[in-house]
Structures are given as C-alpha cells and as structure tokens.
Amino acid sequence: MQRRRFSHSATLEERLVEFARRVRSDVETLAPCSERDELVEKLRQIETALDMNQFLISSGSNRE
Q1: CB < 8 Å & 24+ apart, contacts of 15-21
Q2: Per-residue pLDDT tens for 21-47?
C-alpha cells in the first residue's frame, strides 16, 4: 500500500500561526463555556507546538 504524499504550500510554523489566529478569534467571541475552555486548551497546544518547532529548528542549526 502506497502512502499518500501531500505537499504543503506553507511551512508548519505558518500553518500553526494561522490556526492559532483563528482559534484566538473564536475564543474572543465566545462567552465562558465548555467550548471556549476547549478552544483555550487547543490554543495552548498550538503555542506549545510552535515553541517545540522553534526549538527543533534552532537546535538543528547548531549541529556541525
């Protein structure tokens, strides 16, 4: 079975930043509720992914 390959037009960081922007916008429009809490948690996960991505990029460039 062959794996499907998908070529992204944007980097992972760009996609995560855009997704975070959309989630932040949704969080701002919702009143406190369980759905808003879930979005806040998702936003934290996105921010952690961005931090990890940045760490991996920077530590990868330090290798010689």
Answers
A1: 16/46, 16/49, 16/50, 16/53, 17/50, 19/46, 20/46, 20/47, 20/50
A2: 999 999 999 999 999 999 999 999 999
pTM over 0.85: no
CA distance 45 to 48: 5
Q: Copy the structure tokens of residue 50.
A: 């961005």
In whole angstroms, what separates CA 33 from the centre of its chain? 22
Do residues 36 and 30 make contact, with C-beta atoms less than 8 angstroms apart? yes
User: Residue 3 domain-assigned?
Assistant: no
Q: How many domains does the chain have?
A: 1
Domain that holds residue 38: 12-61
4 within 8 A of 37, measured Cβ to Cβ: no
